Sequence to fold (270 residues):
Amino acid sequence: MTFCGGMPDPITMPDHHRHCASNFRAALLLLLGLLLPGTAIAEPVRLTSDEYAPLVSRHIKGHGLLSEIVTRTLRDMGLESELAFQPWRRGQAEVLAGRVWATFPYVKTPDRERRYQFSRYPLFENRIVFFYRVDRFPDGLEWHQLSDLRPHTIGGIRGYWYERDLERAGLTVAYATDVETALRMLRLGRTDVLLLSELVGWHAIHSTFPEEHRNFATLERPYEVVASWLMVSNSYPNSRRLLQRFDHAFRKLAEAGRFDALTRQYIPQR
Fold:
């Protein structure tokens, strides 16, 4: 075990001490930012997410609705941030290890609540539905419990919270690593239905298959309406204090209506 003690000369110190000194400086800068609101710090707060347009996307200006909400909240606290896009599971591992402060949007599960912290307030509410192709099921499909869908192949996305539910129900599931791939599998008939956010699914369909959107539909019965949260590391420097300040700033901005215009910008009103 390497002990990081003192602050030796950075020119002559061994590599492992130089790494410790770097971590010490990063933690000190972050602590100063937390104690002195409005003070700019050199080290940005590290965030991670993956494609989930229009809520999060590397291809959208501002990186999507929830990216803007999270970064604007941090900016109101006097903190800059750095958002990295990587697969969901890798991002979870980075947050767990404390290399990244938070990832979003995430649904709470008992397992996640044992390993991570969550924001006090949800970032967004999502209606989760089953998408299908009209030419394959002109009358749709009826289901009352997940086991009713056992004759069909379900499409899902690896790393999403519903994996255990689908496994417990004994369903045949074909997983993709991202939304676009999952939709292509549905379009090609490799899956019969796809479990996905209604908002995210329709956005992806209109972006990827604009001339075929009428051949897609959703089952009448939704799977679930879920809240999406900021999922936060327990081991990132000063993580708990940072989350407390984030919750306070988020509530203040939300109550002031500061997110309303952003929501209208990204989500067309029906």
